[in-house]
Write a structure and sequence with these properties.
Elements: H1 7-19, H2 22-29, H3 33-47, E1 52-55, E2 58-61, H4 63-84, E3 97-101, H5 104-121, E4 126-130, H6 134-142, E5 148-152, E6 160-168, E7 170-174, H7 186-191, E8 193-197, H8 206-213, E9 219-224, H9 227-235, E10 240-244, H10 245-254, E11 258-261, E12 269-276, H11 283-297
Parallel strand pairs: 3-4, 3-5, 8-9, 8-10
Antiparallel strand pairs: 1-2, 5-12, 6-12, 7-10, 7-11
Organism: Salinimonas profundi
Protein name: LysR family transcriptional regulator
Family: Belongs to the LysR transcriptional regulatory family.
Amino acid sequence: MHSKFDLNLFVVLAAIYREGSITAAAQDLNLTQPAVSHALSRLRDMLDDPLFERHGRRMVPTGRCQQIIPDVQQSLDALHLSITTPWSGTLSSFSRTVKLGLRDVFELSLLKTLKRKLDENAPRVSIQSMHIPLEEMTESLSRGEIDIAIDAMVPARADIQQRGICTEPFVLLCRPDHPLGKRLTKTAYVTAQHVLISARRSLVNHVDMALAASGHHRHIAMICEHYIAAADVAMHSDLLLTVPDNYARQICREIPLAQHPMPVDIPALPIHMYWHNSTDNDPLLKTVRKWMEETLQHPAL
């Protein structure tokens, strides 16, 4: 059995069955008779059956052909209807999975709102979220492994669309009774010990790049891959945790850390949305992108 099928062969099969001859099928399909004969030969080889036997001037279907023709015709009719029926402008007809590339904190920020909106507008659409490393994001979008990604600004190829959707100022988190809580100066911040959230092998990050640009360096005592682990460490130690504001909101819902303004000047983190050119006009994905952008820009919605 062949692993790949040429749908055009089944169009030919249906035409021969309907017309009863190769010549009539060729005329109906606006093809040459040799082209129809060649397609039938390929189908016979593929299905290991003659499919039609000549009786006088007519091509009479075999039992195997009679067995498969209802499914073939039904599939061709469904495909034709799907292509020719204008889109109604609603999302309720979609039945598919939207694949998102999100960090865990964006999952917390977005997924409950997306689920509610899908239940209201596209109940047969499901969501799959996964964390894609920044260095793999472009290829994952190009291969269709994910439909939409949200992360910090990164270089992207020409076939990847991107749009800045928000900026995240940084805040400082520590345990409520931290000894530095009442005297968080720049010097105290730089000389303190810190816990860093990073899922990347490289330790280059926005905060330390900004500190280095101003001639400062902080001591990273621990690196965690997940924000909740880093928050738990900060809650039970003297380590300081510096995170974007959205992270801080999510963290403090789970762990009652104290929030403080940054004692050093760190530029806000630009957050971008990414998708492949091929999905730019996809009605469902355009709507999901709009929902995601609105949710991050207006967290209370």
